[in-house]
Amino acid sequence: MTAPHQLGSAHRVCGIAPNGRHRPDLAPGTDGQEHLMNADPDRALLAASLAFAGAAIVGSAVAIHNELPGQPCGISVPLSVPAGLLAGWGAGVAAPWPMPLAAVIAAARSQRTRPSALTGAVCAGIAMGCVLGTAIEPVTCRPRSWSPATRSAIVFNMASSAALIVAGWRHQAAARTRPPRTG
């Protein structure tokens, strides 16, 4: 019997894991090493959109607690922070709720339908809008005024936006290269 550590690169090329099980996601890398690849960009897009929605929820809670109203480019509305959030205006460290909602709906739909380049573009575009929106908020320009919660909310917001941008691009690229489903 061949020990698992003795299995050579031929097994990696065939998609067989060292334990002998078939692994279609096991592929050889250009450096001769095996790499796990996510064969389903739909799941990655859904996970990134849920993280983006989570960041919006955390950011909303921080904005309410620290009274950080949404003031993109200094423009404000005569609403309290909670009212502004409910109205879809957003807050200093939280995306307006329609943005994460649209991203989650688009990503969830991609789980049931044929992959669409439009879905990936929509999710990436929403996340890019969030990065831009965060950058033009006055609170972002005053890092010395940040509480630890504000700092965490901004970092979570930017990281989840970056993940959604990458997942959207990957989904878009995968949708363009996949053959159409038949039957």
- Summarize the main sheet: 2 strands, antiparallel
Shape field: elongated
Sheet-strand content, in percent, reads under 5%
Strand order, main sheet: write it out: 1-2
Give the low-confidence spans: 2-16, 26-38
| Secondary-structure element series | HEEHHHHH
The residue fraction in helices comes out at: 55-70%
Number of domains: 2
Nearest-integer average pLDDT: 81
Straight-line distance between termini? 43 Å
Number of strands: 2
Task: Give me the Rg, rounded.
Answer: 21 Å
From the helix content, strand content and strand pairing, which structural class follows? mainly alpha
Our count of helices gives 6
Which terms summarize this structure?
183 residues, mainly alpha
Describe the overall structure.
The protein is mainly α. It folds into two domains: 4-36, no CATH class; 41-177. It contains six helices and two strands, in the order H-E-E-H-H-H-H-H. Strands 1-2 form a two-stranded antiparallel ribbon. It starts with 8 loop residues before the first helix and ends in a 6-residue tail after the last helix.
Quick description:
This protein has 183 residues and is mostly helical. The protein contains 6 helices and 2 strands, in the order αββααααα.
